[in-house]
Amino acid sequence: TMYVLFLLFQILGAVILGFGIWILADKTSFIAVLQMSSPSLKAGAYILIGVGALTMLMGFLGCLGAVNEIRCLLGLYFTCLMIILLAQIAAALVIYFQKETLKVELSNIVVDLIEKYDPSNEDKRNLQDAWDYVQIQIACCGWTGVKEWENNEILRNKSNTEYPCSCSNRSKDLVEGRGFCNLEDPLNGTATSADWPVREQGCMDGVEQWLKDNLGIILGVCTGVAVVELLGMILSISLCKNIHSEDYTKVPKS
Asked: Is pLDDT above 50 for 88?
């Protein structure tokens, strides 16, 4: 049982490490939009990588301490586990109590991205492609709705006679899936988003629904991680006590 638990920590550390690397490497999802726009999420990804590496190291040290009956290693293992567990609880509390602030920050990030969206800007190509991918996959347009695209600098200069291809409800526009498409029948004067052949639903509802659909899985994983960490803490204390008892019995009686 002891070795299975330490093996679980190695796997757990690898999963956390992999998740952090995925957040940094992902270029084609909503996570990519956040990661490239929000310094806090990028910092969070580096923290996950650090926690994952530390968890793997702790699993190794814990196993080493148990096999060789080294109390200081088991004590270090217990301390690090407690710190990781407390950090996870603190992070969960911050997310819970700051969720409205995070929602506003997220909204500002996406609205700013839409207003400054420019297909010719190669510096922001990955970020813009990630947002196009989100709009295609969730079948949405804008954050709260399609009207946000009317504030795009390029579309305004073209009197809104073009529209974002990734918002289109026409399959031929989605083949390219990025940049702007031309209205087939340009109107005299200025067009509006109501004249575009696009989806009207904002992506905010789709993202919130995705989170609700996957909330059970997220909570289950977090609970499982916490249980494994608690078991590791209990095991390390038990092993420390056993080593202490054995050391005491080895003391020669006078």
From this structure: yes
